């Protein structure tokens, strides 16, 4: 876990969050590989991209389709993914998929099902 934490802390500085001042980095473990994403804000706020969705996009680009675990880090503290990101994560995960919410003082572990109990599924 310490290696994952160092990776998250090293990459959060690449987030582009000039408007909110709230940098986030996400790491998705999928089928034996890891994929990173950072949040990228835009002056037109609805066009901003969350770190979690960017990590999932990198995973899909690599041809992976199953999320095994998710890590989210912000220096602002352990924060959960937004509602939209929870739904995107559920598309490739299961209600049992672990989601670790990291902050400077440690992490909290939840499942995707705990974060999104009434997920839309086809």
Automatic annotation (TrEMBL):
It is an enzyme of class 3 (hydrolase). It catalyses: 2'-deoxycytidine + H2O + H(+) = 2'-deoxyuridine + NH4(+); cytidine + H2O + H(+) = uridine + NH4(+). Keywords: Hydrolase, Metal-binding, Zinc. Zn(2+) binds at residues 50, 82, 85. Gene3D superfamilies: Cytidine Deaminase, domain 2 (3.40.140.10). SUPFAM superfamilies: Cytidine deaminase-like. This is Cytidine deaminase. It comes from Thermus brockianus.
